[in-house]
Amino acid sequence: MAHAHAVKRYSGFMDWLTTVDHKKIGILYLIAGGFFFLVGGLEAILIRIQLWAPQNDFVGADTYNELITMHGTTMIFLAAMPLLFAFMNAVVPLQIGARDVAFPFVNSLGFWTFFFGGLLLNVSWIVGDVPDAGWTAYAPLAGTTYSNDHGMDYYVLGLQIAGIGTLIGGINFLVTIINMRAPGMTFMRMPLFTWTAFITSALILFAFPALTVGLAALMFDRLFSANFFDPTAGGNAVLWEHIFWIFGHPEVYILILPAFGIISEVISTFSRKRLFGYSSMVFATILIGFLGFMVWAHHMFTTGLGPVANALFSIATMLIAVPTGIKIFNWLFTMWGGSIKFTSANLYAVGFVPTFVMGGVTGVMLASAPADFQYHDTYFVVAHFHYVIVGGLVLGIFAGLHYWWPKMFGRVLNETLGKITFWTFFIGFHLTFFIQHFLGLLGMPRRIWQYLDGIGFNEMNMISTVGALLMGVGTILFLMNVVVTMAKPKNAPADPWEDGRTLEWTIPSPPPEYNFAQTPLVRGYDAYWKEKMEGHKGMTPAEPIGPIHMPSPSILPFFMGVGLFVAGFGFMYAPDWGHIGALKTGHFIGIIGLATTLLCMVLRSMIDDHGFHIEEDEILKDLGGKA
Amino acid sequence: MMNRWQFVRRLAPLMAMMALVLAACGREDLSTLNPQGPVAEEQFGLMKTAIIIMGIVVVVVFALALYVIIRFRRRSGDKTIPKQVEGSHKLEVIWTVIPIILLVILAVPTLQSVFNLSKDYSNDPDAVKVIVTSHQYWWEFEYPELGIKTAQELVIPTGKTIAIEAKTADVIHSFWVPSLAGKIDTNPSGNENHMYFSAPKEGVYLGKCAELCGPSHGLMDFKVKSVDGAAFDRWAAAIKEPVALPSDPAIAEVFQSKCLVCHAIGDLGVQAYPNLSGIASRNSVGGILVNVEADDKQYKHEDTVYNNLYNWIKDPEAVKPGNLMSNRYELTEDELEGIAQYLSELTLDYE
Questions:
Q1: What distance lies between CA B133 and its chain's CA centroid?
Q2: ipTM score here?
Q3: Transmembrane region positions (chain B) (predicted)?
C-alpha cells in the first residue's frame, strides 16, 4: 500500500459535512438552493397577499420593504445561483469525462461559504433587523444615516461571504473545463451545457469582484465610518449604482446562460436530433457574455448620465437581442424535423422558448432609453425580469431537475405528477406576470407597499396574486414528487431517457464515486450518440483499468464557513456588545472568527494529504455488479 | 421577404389601430398610454413602435414553435431516428440580419428622442423654472424666478415649458408624472438632473415617487396642476401674500410654537418642511389624503379637507409610516381641532 495513514472514508452525516465529491456537493447545493427557493417563494406570496387589495395592511410598510429586499436577494443569490451550481457540479465533470473538478477541496469551500453567507443573511429575520433597501441597496438609503439598524449589515456581510463561494466556484469550473476534458474532447465537441457553464464561469470571474468591491466599500461606510457613498462627506451615491450594476448586469447573464445550456441539452435529446447550428450557439453564447458587460447603465437611464451615455447603452442593449434571437431560432430548428417526446423535462424546455421570447422582447422595449423613462421602476420592469428569470431560468431549472434527477439520485421523477406540476406552475406564472406589464404602463410604480383605491389597479393585482398562489401550489406539487420519488428503489438505468447523447449517460445512475472506471475516448460531438449510431454499446476507453486517485474528504471547509459566519456577527454587532478590555467585544469575536478560518487555511497548507486510491478490485466489482 | 417600404406601409394601419387600442388604456391623469403632454406623447410613440416590432417577433416565433411542436410530435411507438442536421448557414444569416434591421428601425427614433428629450431649458426665458427637491416623504417645489416655495402640488401654466432641476435632500427618489413625461431621479448634491415637460391641457395630473426611498415610498404622491396663464399668475401672486395667524390667540400661540418651528406660512415660520400657504386649496393633504366634498367620499384615502388635516396632524405615522413629523409634538384635542380648522380655511383664490 502507498500510504502510511489510514484512508479516511466517512459515512452518514459526516460524509456530507466533509465531502469533496462534486456529485455530493451538487446535491448539497440542490438541497440548500431548494430550501432558499422556498424561503424566497414564501416572501413572494406574502408580498402578493399584501398587494391583492388596495391599501391593504396585511403587513406593515417596514416589513413590506424587508420582504421585497429579501425576496430578490434570496432568490438571486441563494436560490437561483446555487441551483445552477448544483447542475454544474453534478453534470459538467461527467459531460467532459472527468472524475471530479480541478479543485475538489475548494469546491467544498465554495458550498460552505455560500451556505453560511445565506444563513447569515436569513438570520436577520430571526433577529428582527432585516435588510430593507431593495436587493439593489442604493445609497444613501443603504447607509447608516437612513438605515440605522443592522438590517443592511446582514446584507453586506451575508452577501460578501456567499460571494466568496460563487467566485471560488467560477474559478473551479473554468480550470476544470480547460484542463480536464477527456481525450478527443476538443472545445468544439463539448456539450452545450458545458459551454454555457464555461462562459458563465468567466462572467463570474469578472463580475463578482465588482460586487465584492462595492459591498466592501459599503461595509466600510457602515461599520467603519468611511464615506464612499455619503455625499455629505464627499462621497457619491451614483457611484454605488455604477459599481452595483457593473456586477448586476453580468449577474443576470450568469443566471440565464446555464439555463440556455440546459434547454439545448433537453430539446436536443427529446427531439432525437443534434443541436441545430452548434457553432452559432457557441458563438452566440460568447457574444452574449461579452456584450453583457457593456450594458450596465441601462439600469440607470433615469439617473441622469446624459444623452450620449444613454444613447450608447441603448444601442448596446438592443444588440444583445441578436445573439439571443439566434439561439431561439436554433432551438426551434433543432425540433424541426425531429421526433419530439413531451416528457416533463421537455415540457419545461419547450415552454421556456415562447416565454423567454416574451421576456426578451420587453427587454428590447426597455432598451430604448426615452421610453424607459416611463417604464423604469414600474411593474413593467418587474414583469420583464420575472419573465426572463422565472419564465427563463426557473423553467430551465425544472427542466434540468427532471432531466438529470435519475443521474443524480438513481430514480426518475414521476412523469404524471411532473406534467401536472408543469401546467400548474406555467399557467400560474403567466397569470402572475403578464398582467403586470399593464400595471406598469398604467402608472403603478414598483416596490410600493400600498396602492390607492379607485385608480384602476385593483382587479389586475388580484389576478396577479391568484397566479402567484398557483405557482406556490405547483412548487408544493414538485416537492411531493420528490418525496414520492425518493421512496422508490434506486434502479434507474445509466441512460433512462434511452436517447442520451452525452457522456453522463454512459455511466451508472448514480455514478460510482470515481465516475468513469476508464476515462472515455471522445470521437466527436454528442460523443455517446456517435457511438450509438455506429452500433457500439458504450464508449471506447482511453486507458486501461487501474487504481484511481481520489481526493480526501475534509472538515476544514465547513469550519472555514463557520469562522466567517461568526466573524460577520462580531463585526456587525461591535457597536452594541461593549468591551473586553481595550477591544470591543464584537471586534474580538470577529477576530476569533477570522482566526478560525485562517487556522483552517494554515492546517490545509501544512498537512500533506495526498488523497487515496480506489483499487482495481473495487472498480472491477462495480463493473461486474452493474452493466 | 418584405422590403423596408412594404414593411412600413403594412404597419401604418396596424399602428393606427394600436394607437386606438392603447389610447383607451388607462386614466388620462395617470397612464403612460394616455399621454397628455408632448414629452409623454413622444415617449408613447416610441413605445408603440417598439410594441409593433416586438409583436411581429413574438408572432413569428410563436407560429414557428406551434407548428414545430404539432407537426414533429413523436407518434407513440415510433422508433425512427430523424435526419441529424448540423445547421444552415443561410438561415443563420437570415435570423441575424432581420433582427438587426428591426433593431435599426427602433434605434433611429430612439436616438432622436434621447437627444431631443435631453434639451436643457434652464436658461430659456420662456420656460418656467422649477427646482424640485425630494424629501422623505414629500415634494418641495421652488420657483426661483418667482420667489415661491411650495410643496406637494406643482401648479403650472398650460402650454409653457417647465424646466425642472431635480435633486434630493436625503435619499434618492424619482420624480414621475406618467401622463406628462417620463421620470428623472433626484440625486444628492453634485448630481442634480434636468428635464422638461409641458401640459397643454388644464387638469390635475398624478405624480408618483419612483425610486425606493423608505417605508412610505408608495405614499409619496404629488400632483401637477395645469391652469391657464392668467390663473397661474393669480396663483403666483396669491401664494406669496402674507397669511394671518389663527384668530384665536391660544391656537395661534400653539401653531407658532409647535408648527412654525418646521413649517412656513406666508412670511412666517421655517422653510425646512412643507410650506403650508394655500394648503386647503391643494388636491390632497400629505400628498396622499385626497380632499373631496363631504358627500363625495368614495375611498378610504378620501375625506373632507378638514378631516384629512385632522387625521394627518393627529397621527402622521398612521398615514405615512416613517415620516419625519411623527412624534414631534403633543396637542390637546382642542388645539388639534383648532389648527385643523384654521388650516382648512387657508384657501387661495386664483381659478
A1: 14
A2: 0.94
A3: 50-70, 91-111
Put simply, whether the predicted model's pTM sits higher than 0.90 gets the answer: yes
Buried b (16+ CB within 10 A) or exposed e, B71-109: ebebeeeeeeebeebebeeebbeebbebbbebbebbbeb
Whether A16 is covered by a domain: the verdict is no
pLDDT digits (tens, 9 = 90+) for A27-64: 999 999 999 999 999 999 999 999 999 999 999 999 99
B122 assigned to some structural domain: no
Q: Give residue-wise pLDDT tens across range A273-331.
A: 999 999 999 999 999 999 999 999 999 999 999 999 999 999 999 999 999 999 999 99
Residue B52 and residue B47: Cα distance in Å, rounded?
9
Structural domains in chain A (count): 1
Considering only alpha carbons, which residue of chain A is nearest residue B193? A304
Whether residue B56 lies within 8 A of chain A, CB to CB, comes out as no
CA distance A77 to chain B (A): 21
Which DSSP string do the residues of A273-291 spell out, in sequence order?
SPPTTHHHHHHHHHHHHHH
The C-alpha cell of A265 is what?
A: 441539452
Over residues A162-186, the pLDDT tens digits come to: 999 999 999 999 999 999 999 999 9
Q: B121 near B163, Cβ under 8 Å?
A: yes
C-alpha cell at B2: 418584405
| Domain harbouring A233, CATH code | 1.20.210.10
Which residues, listed in sequence order, are joined to residue A340 by a DSSP beta bridge?
B73
H helix or E strand, kind and range, residue A585: helix A585-606
Query: Does a structural domain hold residue B241?
Result: no
Residues of A in contact with B215 (CB under 8 A): 60-62, 64-65, 449
Chain B residues with CB-CB distance to A133 below 8 A: 212
CA–CA gap between residue A20 and residue B1 (Å, rounded)? 56
Residue B258 is given by DSSP the state I
CB proximity B122 to A under 8 Å: no
Looking at the domain assignment, is residue A598 inside a domain? no
Please give the residue range of the domain that contains residue B103: 4-70+84-116
| pLDDT tens profile B47-90 | 999 999 999 999 999 999 999 999 999 999 999 999 999 999 99
Residue A518 has pLDDT above 70, yes or no: yes
The DSSP output letter for A247 is H
Task: Work out the end-to-end distance of chain B between its first and last CA atoms, rounded to an integer number of angstroms.
Answer: 59
Let me know if residue A335 belongs to a domain. yes
B79 assigned to some structural domain: no
How many domains, chain B? 3
pLDDT in tens, A544-602: 999 999 999 999 999 999 999 999 999 999 999 999 999 999 999 999 999 999 999 99
Domain-embedded: residue B105: yes
Q: Report the C-alpha gap between B65 and A358 in whole angstroms.
A: 13
Residues B104 and B132 in one domain: no
When the pLDDT of each residue in chain B is averaged and rounded to a whole number, the result is 93
Check A337 against B99: CB less than 8 A apart: no
Tell me: the pLDDT tens digits for B317-332?
Answer: 999 999 999 999 999 9
CA distance B50 to B54: 6
